[in-house]
């Protein structure tokens, strides 16, 4: 027996696709409106991202200045480091029984 189609074949257009010019304009206008809204949203995101990057740069500059004041990372840091005496090997003598967790503890 021949196979029977479960679904009817798709309708074939009788000729060139014709559409009401008013309907085509409405669809086109809707697409263009959506495109404009999406483009405007992307522009706002780009502007916001630029502001965030500028703020981040200002914060990093302020942090760098603050750290330079507290730690001494400025132009004179090398001079200040050279003026301080340096120690070589430091020997620590102690005389107490090792507690649990000390490096000398046998446990």
What does this structure look like?
With about 110 residues, the protein is mainly α. Helix content is about 55%, strand content about 0%. The mean pLDDT is about 75.
Mean residue pLDDT: 77
Q: From the alpha carbons, calculate the radius of gyration and give it in angstroms.
A: 39 Å
Number of helices: 2
Q: What portion of residues belong to β-strands? A: under 5%
Main sheet specs:
none
pLDDT under 50 segments (min length 5)? none
Distance between the termini: 90 Å
Protein topology:
Layout: H1 21-71, H2 77-83
List keywords for this structure.
elongated; 107 residues; 0% strand; mainly alpha
Structure summarized in a few sentences:
By secondary structure, the protein is mainly alpha-helical. It has 2 helices and no strands.
